[in-house]
Write a structure and sequence with these properties.
By secondary structure, this protein is an alpha/beta fold. The chain has 5 helices and 8 strands; from the N terminus they run βαββαβαβαββαβ. The chain has a single domain, classed as NAD(P)-binding Rossmann-like Domain (Rossmann fold, 3-Layer(aba) Sandwich), CATH 3.40.50. Helix 4 links the parallel strand 5 and strand 6 (about 150-155).
């Protein structure tokens, strides 16, 4: 079993990952700026921020994997990228694997085509956070080989606004947005979390970006 720390562990993606990892028997710490009222049995809940050096050190201490699910919006806009950079710098010598949940915006809409964020219909209000997370991916790809990481992009429709029902299945892609035969790009929180914990248990994307969808 792995020791897993999850930054943003009370959010939609993070909470789903925390619950799935705990269900499978992993040792899980959920780190967030505010402690939740409802908690998953067996999970350690820690109050702290990705931007705080002491909190990052606690997240890394004894961990096998640290997953970041914090979105760069609101008062975190512009801060998630440097926070992940600092976390990665601390993780590299320790060998702790870093996983990042990015957005769909950095995915290509077709092989060799534009990124979703660069298409005309991409919502302007989401561009800054999408570009910030794309910069995180660029940094990871340029990082030394000694840094072990994975970067998972959800599909275009992903979030608490459309949780969906668990199907127990998902498809895996690389750099291109996954859509179904009707053009939908979606996955529910439970199945997204399954993909994350599957990657932790059986690494298939070391130092790589991948995406999942139905």
């Amino acid at each position: 079993m792995a020791r897993i720390s999850v930054f943003g562990g009370t959010g939609y993606a993070g909470g789903s990952i925390v619950a799935e990892a705990a269900r499978r028997g992993h040792t899980v710490a959920s780190i967030s700026r505010h402690l939740p009222d409802q908690r998953t049995d067996g999970v350690e809940y820690v109050e702290g921020s990705l931007l705080d050096a002491d909190t990052r050190a606690k997240a890394l201490a004894g961990a096998d994997v640290v997953v970041v699910t914090v979105a760069p919006r609101g008062d975190m806009a512009g801060s998630v990228h440097p926070g992940i950079t600092a976390l990665a710098a601390d993780a590299e010598p320790s060998g702790v694997r870093i996983g990042v949940v990015g957005g769909a915006g950095s995915l290509q809409v077709v092989e060799g085509g534009p990124r979703l964020v660069d298409t005309p219909d991409f919502p302007a209000e989401y561009k800054p956070e999408s570009l910030e997370m794309a910069a995180v991916l660029d940094d990871f790809r340029a990082a030394p080989e000694s840094l072990d990481w994975f970067y998972l992009c959800p599909p275009a429709a992903f979030g608490g606004f459309a949780p969906g029902e668990a199907r127990g299945t998902y498809r895996v892609g690389a750099d291109v947005l996954l859509t179904d035969d009707e053009g939908n790009s979606f996955i529910g929180g439970a199945d997204f979390a399954t993909a994350v914990v599957d990657e932790i248990e059986q690494p298939a994307h070391r130092r790589a970006r991948f995406t999942v969808a139905y």
